[in-house]
Design goal:
2 strands, mainly alpha, 2 domains, 271 residues, disordered N terminus, 10 helices, single chain, two-stranded antiparallel ribbon
C-alpha cells in the first residue's frame, strides 16, 4: 500500500497514519513510528489490542495454577494457625466448623484472585494511560502550545506495549521457576544479599528494596519512548519534556516502591 493516500477530493495527498501493523516499530524504529503520528483517532484498534494482550497474559497466569496454589497456601497457613491457637480453647466440633469456614473462604479467595488477575490488569492499564495523557495534556497547555489529545493518546498507547513485553518476560520466568514471586526490577538483587544483622525489624531492608524495585528497566524504557514520542510530535521539547517525564516516572516508581516495601516488611514480620 502506498504511504500517500488521496483525500476525498483527490487534490492533496495525506500521510498514512499509524495502525496495529506498525507495532514492531515501537521496538525497532520508534522515531519513524512517532513521526507518522497525527492528531486523529488512530489508536482504537491498537488500544483494544493492548487490552486484549494484557487480559490474555492474566488468563495465562491463572492457567498456570500458581494463583490457586498461592491462595491454597495462605488458607493452609490460616488453618494451621487456627488449630494451634484454638485446639485447647474450643470444642472439637466447633474447631471443625471454624476450619470449614476457612476452607470456604479460601474458595472465595481463589475466585477473587482469578478475577483480579484477569480483569483488574486491563482496567489498571486503561486508567493509567488515560491519567498519563490527561497530565501531559495539562502540561502541554500550560507550556503555551496547543495540546493534541489524540496525539498524546497514540504515543502513550504504542509506548505501553513495552509494558506488555515486560509482562511476557515476567510470565516466562513464572513458568520457568513455577512461582509468582518474580521481580524484574533491581529489587531482585535483595534476594541474593543476606539480611542485615543490624536490621532485625527489616525496615532498612524494606526501604532499600523499595528504592531498587522502582528501577524497573521496562518502566524506564517506557518513559524514554514517551519522551521520544513527545519530542517527535512537537508536543513537548527541551527541559520541560524531560522534567515532566522524570517527574511522572518518579510518581509511578514511588507508588510501586511503596507497595514493594510494604510487602517486604510484611514478609519480614511474618518470617
Amino acid at each position: 500500500m502506498a504511504d500517500a493516500l488521496l483525500t476525498s477530493g483527490g487534490a492533496e495527498p495525506r500521510r498514512r497514519t499509524v495502525s496495529v501493523m506498525d507495532l514492531p516499530l515501537v521496538f525497532l524504529a520508534p522515531r519513524r513510528l512517532f513521526a507518522r503520528v497525527e492528531d486523529v483517532c488512530a489508536y482504537r484498534f491498537t488500544g483494544l489490542f493492548l487490552l486484549v494482550c494484557v487480559t490474555l497474559i492474566g488468563w495465562a497466569t491463572v492457567e498456570t495454577g500458581l494463583v490457586d496454589r498461592q491462595a491454597d497456601l495462605l488458607v493452609r497457613k490460616q488453618i494451621a494457625d487456627l488449630e494451634e491457637e484454638q485446639r485447647d480453647v474450643v470444642e472439637r466440633s466447633e474447631l471443625k466448623r471454624l476450619i470449614e469456614e476457612r476452607r470456604k473462604a479460601g474458595e472465595f479467595l481463589k475466585l477473587m484472585a482469578r478475577i483480579q488477575t484477569i480483569g483488574l490488569a486491563p482496567v489498571v492499564t486503561l486508567a493509567s494511560v488515560l491519567l498519563i495523557c490527561a497530565a501531559l495534556f495539562g502540561v502541554v497547555a500550560l507550556s503555551g502550545k496547543k495540546p493534541e489529545w489524540h496525539t498524546l493518546l497514540t504515543v502513550c498507547t504504542y509506548s505501553w506495549f513495552v509494558d506488555v513485553l515486560g509482562r511476557l518476560v515476567w510470565l516466562g520466568l513464572v513458568l520457568r521457576h513455577a512461582t509468582l514471586d518474580v521481580d524484574l526490577s533491581l529489587g531482585a538483587l535483595m534476594r541474593i544479599v543476606p539480611p542485615m544483622a543490624s536490621d532485625p525489624s527489616g525496615t532498612q531492608t524494606a526501604a532499600i528494596y523499595a528504592v531498587l524495585s522502582a528501577l524497573d528497566p521496562f518502566h524506564v524504557w517506557f518513559w524514554l519512548l514517551m519522551g521520544l514520542g513527545l519530542h517527535t510530535t512537537s508536543q513537548l521539547r527541551g527541559w520541560r519534556l524531560w522534567v515532566i517525564c522524570v517527574l511522572l516516572w518518579l510518581i509511578g516508581a514511588g507508588m510501586r516502591g511503596a507497595g514493594a516495601a510494604a510487602q517486604s516488611l510484611a514478609a519480614a514480620t511474618t518470617g
